[in-house]
Design a protein that fits this description.
Blueprint (H helix, E strand, L loop, with lengths): L3 H9 L2 H18 L3 H6 L6 H9 L18 H12 L3 H21 L2 H12 L4 E5 L15 E5 L2 E12 L4 E9 L10 E7 L5 E5 L11 E11 L4 E2 L5 H37 L1 E2 L3 E2 L4 H30 L4 H26 L10 H13 L4 H8 L1 H4 L2
Parallel strand pairs: 1-4
Antiparallel strand pairs: 2-3, 3-7, 4-5, 5-8, 6-7, 9-10
Helix pairs in contact: 1-9, 2-5, 5-6, 5-8, 6-7, 6-8, 8-9, 8-10, 8-11, 9-10, 10-11, 10-12
Bound molecules: flavin-adenine dinucleotide (FAD).
The site of flavin-adenine dinucleotide (FAD) has 24 residues, from helix 6, strand 1, strand 3, helix 11 and helix 12.
């Protein structure tokens, strides 16, 4: 059976974009899918050879300007990569995905010319990565108020505290640290972002152990003990760090929506194939039962509407008119709908769904991250409700 997602994308995006999607899809089929079970069973992070191959395809530089070594593409390219690789593995897709949307992109949007020249070419080539240090052990949803501090002493800033959940930490050369710099200022104006080298004195990283979601993705905890940085390492403006983070998250949430839809697309194909091939009761396919059809039809509707919405939001993002609520809404809706439907899809495939090699359990588990990551869905509703309460 042809992939349902291909049918929809062929009609939604232009020929060039579809050709790009097909190239990444083929890469994912040939160089990711066949190895996933081994990587999972051996508890491996994305192997360096796979990262190198994605780098050679230009996947780490998709929306980065050509003058800085990127592909000069747009946010839709990034999301098409999320769909094509996320179809098999969100964990593999998030590696270039976070490296761009949480690493390179904030530099492109908020960095100085010198910072862009120093970092973007290597980031766009996938030779190194920058991680996004927003979350902390004591600060998740309340990210505007970091416990990590940066105090000015002479001409240096001294950073102390801990960041956690830092995606790609294992491969990172630098971390963007969101730190409290003016505790008495109004909410949203208290913090500053610093680009800190991972090998700087006083920076300690360790991989977070025991994570059963996004298993091939690196997730680190990073400690800062009297780490000294200069003004040159400030990303954006002093006491405007939360704006840098929020600007970053708008694009990141679209990418998370693409991962959720990639998982949904896989589950839809898996379920409709299974429903046609599994014969029972007079040796006829279970796909003839209306309740089985209901799940498949709902998956199909959610996929088509989600893809249409995603391409629209990417368009608004490029025009600079995507509102924070809009980015939050699509992340909330795609993640929760895909999560509900993949769980139902597992039911219609019965016991075989519980095996790793069938693939659904991987997507089911990974979809949890799409609900909680880059702002938990429950907390994001605080943002979505704002325009509904005005006037
Ligand atoms: C695999 C993975 C990768 C990640 N990668 C990164 C990364 O690269 N960089 C980074 O900075 N962070 C990263 N995160 C962290 C992620 O952004 C946080 O998990 C998320 O912001 C939620 O924070 P928390 O887990 O501390 O939950 P908490 O803030 O403790 O919230 C717990 C729950 O309380 C409820 N809640 C909280 N606040 C509200 C509210 N205002 N209204 C209603 N309900 C609320 C929600 O149900 C929420 O899920 C990652 C997380 C995971 C799991």
């Amino acid at each position: 059976m042809a992939r349902r997602i291909d049918t929809y994308l062929a009609n939604l995006i232009g020929e060039d974009k579809f050709a790009f999607y097909e190239a990444v899809r083929d890469f994912s089929d040939e160089q990711v899918a066949p190895h996933l079970l081994t990587w999972e069973r051996e508890h491996k992070l994305v192997p360096d050879s796979c990262i190198q191959a994605m780098g050679e395809m230009g996947l780490f530089g998709l929306p980065i300007a050509e003058e800085f070594g990127g592909q000069g593409g747009d946010h839709l390219d990034l999301c098409l990569m999320g769909l094509a690789i996320g179809y098999h593995s969100q964990a593999v897709a998030i590696t270039p995905g976070a490296a761009i949307s949480l690493g390179a992109k904030p530099l492109q949007l908020c960095g100085t010319e010198a910072q862009k020249r120093a970092h973007l070419p290597a980031l766009a080539a996938g030779e190194r990565m920058i991680v996004f240090g927003l979350s902390e052990p004591g600060r998740g949803s309340d990210a505007a108020n970091p416990e990590v501090t940066a105090v000015k002493k002479g001409d240096k800033w001294v950073i102390n505290g801990e960041k956690c959940w830092s995606t790609n930490a294992h491969w990172a050369s630098h971390v963007v640290v969101h730190a409290l710099t003016d505790p008495d200022a109004p909410n949203g104006k208290r913090s500053t972002c610093f680009i800190v080298p991972m090998d700087q004195k006083g920076v300690f990283y360790q991989e977070m152990q025991g994570k059963k979601v996004w298993e091939q993705s690196s997730t680190g905890s990073i400690m800062f003990e009297n780490v000294e940085v200069s003004d040159d390492e400030i990303l954006g403006e002093v006491n405007n760090g939360f704006k840098v983070m929020v600007t970053t998250l708008n694009g990141g949430r679209l990418f998370i929506a693409s991962l959720a839809l990639g998982s949904l697309a896989f589950a839809l194909d898996r379920c409709r194939t299974y429903a046609e091939e599994r014969n029972q009761f007079d040796d006829k396919p279970i796909g003839r039962f209306q309740r089985v059809q209901d799940v498949i039809v709902d998956m199909d509707i959610a996929l088509e509407s989600g893809l249409t919405w995603l391409t629209h939001c990417c368009d608004l993002y490029e025009k600079g008119t995507l509102g924070r609520e809009q980015a939050a809404k699509i992340k909330v809706e795609c993640s929760r709908r895909a999560s509900e439907l993949v769980a139902l899809g597992m039911e219609i495939c019965g016991g075989v769904s519980s095996f790793d090699e069938f693939g659904l359990i991987r997507h089911h588990n990974d979809l949890f991250v799409t609900r909680v990551g880059e702002g938990s869905n429950f907390a994001l509703k605080d943002l979505i409700v704002r325009p509904l309460r005005k006037g």
